[in-house]
Write a structure and sequence with these properties.
The protein has 443 residues and is of the alpha/beta class. 44% of the residues lie in helices and 15% in strands. The chain is globular and about 75 Å long.
């Protein structure tokens, strides 16, 4: 069997030293195609080649402590949760492997700071391609798999239901079968990122592990298959696989199409005079919002448990979209008052205490900064999600309230205030340069 541990160690040293494949081939007197075949897992690295490499690089390829390192494989590694989980596991001393899609455009900004660091490796694979998953799992031979990859936007699932089902439902099955194909069903523990959207048209409040499911979107229906296939393989094949039923978890790394980031970005732009109004859907929708950075710890704890079980991951505290928007504006010195109901509801500025740098002598008092648009209502909308994390607290010792709701909003707003300010500064530089070029000052 090819020892991929050697390959991963070699890649890590090369990244540290800034050596490419051609340079390495020259250093050890071998053809570059040999190096490529090592990295592709097509041939193993012989003992004599290991000695050559260690002499040329001045380092041992495999240090003693590396033999005891746990290996984790993360699908969806470039997402919000994947990036935080990678950081968390690296701090825990894991060797972390991430699965990324092969795209013409690069979407690695959340993990770019990890690339090139020891014990962090990326592999091409796709949730719609079973062979690519089998190849990665067989090559890495992980101790733990965290399946975070998904089409996770509820509204998009109405527009692309077939794609959502293929990734979020059948994709889970492909991961499970890849583990079996690699012969790891007795050693590899699997975490499946499930969702509070399973409860959908809720039948009780708050929701716990025993609450009946009533999915209310194509996304939730697909995720329900993922939940049940995990349970089926756990019972049928005695595999250690679990679902974490994640309630809404946000951060400064959240995608900009999600309502929380949409709010904090708009707040930053309005506060800095770059946007007039924020349009939202149902302001009365209730959610249990937590900090994603806190939630990845619970994912890890679930796989450290003595037996495979499913857990609700939530804060146990509920807020409305209206409240999230109110606190976001309040943090930048803008006080809102909400008037009207339904589609006629507006959020009016009643106090403007923004920093003078952003105020620009124009007060926002009296202006409607939030309006409701029917375009953002879903065909079927989940309006009352509220998780009960009692089991996770009792059995795993997890603290769901490390970061309060107000602190979460503050973190996200501060990040987007800096982002918008940076974009504004860059735009100003581009404008000034254009003016200089036009006037012939810069040639």
């Amino acid at each position: 069997m090819i020892d991929m541990q050697l390959v991963f160690a070699l890649k890590g040293i090369m990244n540290q030293k800034g050596i490419n494949q051609r340079e390495l081939a020259d250093m050890i007197g071998k053809d570059e195609t040999v190096i490529s075949r090592w990295f592709a897992g097509k041939v193993g690295i012989s003992r004599s080649s290991v000695e050559l490499l260690e002499k040329a690089l001045g380092e041992k390829l495999i240090k003693d402590k590396q033999h005891n390192m746990k290996k984790a494989l993360i699908t969806g590694v470039t997402g919000q949760d994947g990036s935080y989980l990678s950081e968390f596991l690296l701090e825990k001393g894991y060797e972390v492997h991430g699965v990324i899609r092969r795209n013409s455009s690069d979407h690695r900004e959340r993990i770019s700071h990890l690339e090139g660091t020891p014990h962090f490796h990326l592999h091409y694979g796709h949730m719609e391609d079973s062979m690519s998953l089998v190849k990665v799992v067989t090559m890495v031979r992980p101790d733990e798999i965290y399946n975070l990859a998904a089409q996770s936007h509820v509204q998009v699932s109405f527009d692309s239901p077939e794609f959502t089902a293929d990734v979020d439902a059948t994709g889970v099955l492909r991961v499970l079968e890849a583990v079996r194909a690699a012969g790891l069903e007795n050693t590899c523990r699997i975490y499946q990122a499930s969702t509070s959207e399973l409860y959908g048209k809720v039948e009780e409040v708050p929701q716990n592990e025993n609450t009946p499911f009533h999915p209310y979107s194509p996304y939730a229906v697909a995720k329900l298959y993922g939940y049940w296939i995990i349970r089926e393989y756990r019972e049928a094949y005695n595999m250690f696989c679990c679902s974490g039923i994640l309630f809404n978890h946000e951060s400064e790394r959240r995608g900009e199409t999600f309502v929380t980031r949409k709010i904090t970005l708009a707040v930053a732009r309005i506060a800095q005079g770059l946007q007039d109004c924020l349009y939202l859907g149902n302001l009365g929708s209730l959610r249990d919002w937590g900090y994603a950075k806190d939630y990845v710890e619970c994912m890890w704890l679930i796989l450290q448990n003595d037996k495979p079980e499913d857990f609700v991951i939530a804060t146990g505290v509920q807020h409305s979209v209206r409240e999230f928007a109110y606190y976001a504006f309040k943090h930048v010195g803008i006080e809102l008052e909400f008037k009207g109901k339904g589609l006629d509801e507006i959020g009016v500025c009643v106090s403007d205490n923004r920093h003078s740098v952003h105020k620009k002598d124009t007060s926002l008092v009296g202006k409607a900064l939030i309006k409701v648009s029917p375009d953002f209502y879903r065909p079927t909308d989940v309006v009352n999600l509220w998780g009960d994390p009692t089991k996770a607290k009792a059995k795993l010792g997890w603290n769901p309230n490390k970061t309060s709701f107000e602190e979460l909003v503050k973190i996200m707003v501060d990040s987007d205030m800096a982002k918008v300010a940076g974009e504004g500064a860059a735009a100003k530089v581009r404008t000034n340069l254009a003016e200089y070029l036009e006037k012939g000052i810069v040639k």
